[in-house]
Amino acid sequence: MKNNLAHVLNEAVDQYNRLSFIEHDPISIPHRFDRKEDIEIAGFLTAIISWGNRASILKSADCMMNRMGHSPYEFILNAKRGDAFTKNQSIHRTFNEEDFWFFTLALRRIYNCEFGLEMVFTKGFDLGGSFEALKHFRTVFMNSKTHRASKHIADVARNSSAKRLNMFLRWMVRRDERGVDFGIWKGISPSKLSIPLDVHSGNTARQLGLLTRQQNDWKAVVELDESLKKFDAVDPVKYDYALFSLGESGIWKQK
Questions:
Q1: What is the pLDDT along the chain (255 residues), one digit of tens a residue?
Q2: What is the CB-side half-sphere exposure of residue 101 using CA atoms within 13 A?
Q3: How large is the C-alpha radius of gyration of the chain?
């Protein structure tokens, strides 16, 4: 049974971990850029708004890139409020201009004072696993401030699954010869990453017998991580592709 499931999972990864499948995926936004900092910032902002319809996500992310002059890093370092959006303007669902400006200032501080996003997350992973890294990142990002934008940064200490941040980390850290994920952060082991868990991947994982917990929370992430490490302890989050594709196609039911 385990060998058969491993075959199904690896076959699905092979099918979907390809550049041809990301044209309409949020990761296509940071793929527009070559500069490391532009990739990081475009990826981070796109991941943060990645909930809801994918076409809507891409439209909103494209709008952000346009308003930032297609130079996210330069914008973060130099922009004044109002350069991109008008006050209280909606950008994507509940993410509005006030949130965007808070993010702009937080990222500016991170690049000016913390040596960038990669260093913040690397320090977090040095404290332990993805739980410690995500907790550390939220602390640094919020910088002891109380702001409505905090709802857009997952709080694993409150049992959030942190789907969007885990997806962003997969993009930045995971590396293989396919060129889908960027793998530009070298100081973090892909083995430490956690699965980006959402309703669809959670349902698929339960149907496959990889997850028993019913809530899509951090405890479920931990359980699913352990299940996936049995198939590949070095690169467990590659199975994010499998959970997505098998859930979408229902192929697993035929095996």
A1: 677 999 999 999 999 999 998 999 999 999 999 999 999 999 999 999 999 999 999 999 999 999 999 999 999 999 999 999 999 999 999 999 999 999 999 999 999 999 999 999 999 999 999 999 999 999 999 999 999 999 999 999 999 999 999 999 999 999 999 999 999 999 999 999 999 999 999 999 999 999 999 999 999 999 999 999 999 999 999 999 999 888 766 554 544
A2: 16
A3: 18
Q: Classify residue 77 by burial, with Cβ atoms within 10 Å: 0-12, 13-18, 19+.
A: middle
Distance CA 108, CA 114 (A): 9
Name the residue type at position 95: F
How many other C-beta atoms lie within 10 A of the C-beta of residue 130? 25
Q: Which residue has the tokens 């044209």?
A: 23
Q: C-alpha angle 219/221/223, rounded to 5°?
A: 70
Instruction: Classify the C-alpha dihedral 23-151-199-132 as positive or negative.
Output: positive
Whole-structure pTM value: 0.95
Q: Do 187 and 193 form a contact (C-beta atoms < 8 A)?
A: no
Summarize the chain as % helix, strand, coil (round to 5).
Answer: 60, 0, 35
Residues in Cβ contact with 68 at an 8 Å cutoff, skipping those fewer than 6 apart: 75, 79, 84
Q: Helix (H, G, I), strand (E, B), or coil: what is residue 96?
A: strand
